[in-house]
Prior knowledge:
By secondary structure, the chain is mostly helical. It has a domain at 67-150. 40% of the residues lie in helices and 5% in strands. It is built from four helices and four strands. The chain has helices at 36-66, 105-114, 123-134, 143-150; strands spanning 68-69, 80-81, 87-88, 103-104. The radius of gyration is 30 Å and the shape is elongated. The two termini are 50 Å apart. 18% of the residues are buried. InterPro entries: TAT_signal (IPR006311).
Amino acid sequence: MSDDTRSDQDPIPEAGPDTGSAAGPATGDSAGTPTRRRVLALGAVTAGAVVSIRPALAQTVGSVLNCEIPVPDPSRAGSYIDPDGKTVPARTKGAFPPSPRAFKGEEVKRAMANGSTLPGTDSQRSRAYVNYIRRLQRGQGGFTCFASLQMPRG
């Protein structure tokens, strides 16, 4: 059966200013269905947004892995870290001296994820430092970096 003999089909609109092309009909009717031109324009805008957002996300992920967490934070410099991750006075028996350097977000993430040791530490000291990092709160040095490591990545 040919198209021009079917009675249940809407008539094809004539080419006009809103049909998307002077040479042929649009993909929709004039009652609100988008034209080809509108659909293509929307696709182009969406693709541009994706292209500009993805590098920003990649840069964010990179900066999170390069952020630093001091152990302990500068306001507690000189304090030792006990096995539970609490800061205690210097030379407390069973506690560990502060780390000579801050740890990178990537190092902390790896240690928290699979139990590997932080660079330059043995397993007990690393565990104490990771416990300290897990206890960080807003306002302490390294908290923002630690919080960023907790954010799910998509």
